[in-house]
Design a protein that fits this description.
The protein has two helices and no strands. By secondary structure, it is an all-alpha fold.
């Protein structure tokens, strides 16, 4: 069921849209990680301002 998954991720992406200074593709990665419950592996400190697990 790809359709509902994509819709849920898009909704999460738009909820992260308050910070327009951050790369929109980064926000999509964050939304997908939050949706799946996956931690992110990154050295970018900007990701820490979002409620997402960092590995």
């Amino acid at each position: 069921m790809i359709g509902p998954l994509l819709a849920d991720t898009r909704i999460l992406h738009w909820s992260l849209n308050g910070d327009r200074r951050h790369d929109p593709f980064d926000r999509l990665i964050i939304a997908q990680a939050k949706h799946e419950g996956w931690p992110l592996m990154t050295a970018d400190p900007a990701f820490r301002r979002y409620d997402v697990a960092i590995a």
